[in-house]
Amino acid sequence: MVVVGGGIAGVAAAHRVTTLAPDAEVVLLEGSPRLGGKLALAEVGGLVVDTGAEALLQRRPEAVDLARAVGLSDDLVEPATISASLWSRGELSSLPRTLMGIPTDGDDDGRPVVLDADVSVGDLVAAHLGEDVVQRLVEPMLGGVYAGHAHQISTRAAVPQLVRHLDGTRTLTEAAAAAMTPSGAGGPVFAGIRGGVGRLPLAVAADLSVETDAVVRELHRTPTGFELVVGPTRAERRVEADAVVLATPARPTARLLADVAATAAAELAEIEYASMAVVTLAVRDLPATTGSGFLVPPVEGRTVKGATYSFAKWGWVGEHDLTVLRCSIGRHREEQVLQRDDDEVVALAAADLSDALGGPVVPVDSHVQRWGGGLPQYAVGHVERVARIRADVERVPGLAVCGAAYDGVGVPAAIGTALAAAERVVSSLDGRIGS
Prior knowledge:
Layout: E1 2-4, H1 8-20, E2 27-29, E3 41-44, E4 47-50, E5 56-57, H2 62-69, E6 76-77, E7 84-88, E8 91-94, E9 98-99, E10 102-103, H3 121-129, H4 131-146, H5 155-158, H6 160-163, H7 172-180, E11 190-193, H8 199-205, E12 209-211, E13 216-222, E14 225-230, E15 237-241, E16 244-246, H9 250-257, H10 262-268, E17 273-283, E18 293-295, E19 304-308, H11 310-313, H12 315-318, E20 323-329, H13 342-357, E21 363-376, H14 382-393, E22 399-401, H15 411-428
Parallel strand pairs: 1-2, 1-16, 2-12, 7-18, 16-22
Antiparallel strand pairs: 3-4, 5-11, 6-11, 7-8, 9-10, 13-14, 14-15, 17-20, 17-21, 18-19, 19-20
């Protein structure tokens, strides 16, 4: 079988197939020169750090379970601190307890909420808590997670744990508080990996058959399975497979499914993506900080959406002789700042940090990781769209899709879709998986 896409979902799917069907011949094809997708590492100031996702939600087990399965148990670490601030109206203040920016206490309109149809998170919060809460709390949170906008992001897709508590017996803040209460064992919400979360896909892929720089341009059905057209038009080759998992973003997945699952292809083509960048700075003398970083409401008009004090959040980063921190920039349909060159982007980030911290931030080294089209936007109706995509794909034996476009942009969620995709193709072929 073939897995297309070498991000965390792709390597996790391939790994799961080899576990379920040890005799299967599994080939992973990645179009770029490297594996990992949105998990990446780079050296900044002499220290290798994450330039993509840098934390794993620990209350979903998929990511930490996979890390343990590939020998990273001893390198799983907990953050030293996760207390964030809000840079709003010229001051840094403690971020109140919220669920995706929705306060878990305080004044609301007192009306019990029932969600009969999907609405945007911004519309829901504005109706019960006011637009200022949307602008000052919800927007910075959703901007950090999705690089999106509160009045465009689906409540059902982005905050499903809240929806379960909107049963007509609770107000919005009461439902947010109920959704924040752990249903199982407590413990740290997040985990990291010493040396960077970017190590995870590389460790997962260590025992897989992988081809990089292998762009898959076409996918067709055959009497025995599938044919993939791989490589440039002047040097293309055709690969036969009896099962295929597509672990690619929505648009390339739509292109590959055009002749195989047309309805799914049309739905996938409608999913928009946001571009953003992670700016990592190494500083010798940083002004005083507290907590693990801060978020910035977009109404403040700043370049930086948020900053993470990596040196304070992760003990292994703090051991370095330079102070390493990172900022994120860029939102959906507001990517103009990303058109600037790296030096300009670094200067803008350092200027915002200097203003926020009340002293000069002068990097001695920096790195700009641009994620063009990096984050899928879960528009209102996304859950129903995904259901239609899966229904169409499931009509085709031996075919499955996975990745961040479906059920969550976090690493555990992407891995969860990969595990389900692997189990589907193995089950649908009843153990007959070959090449």
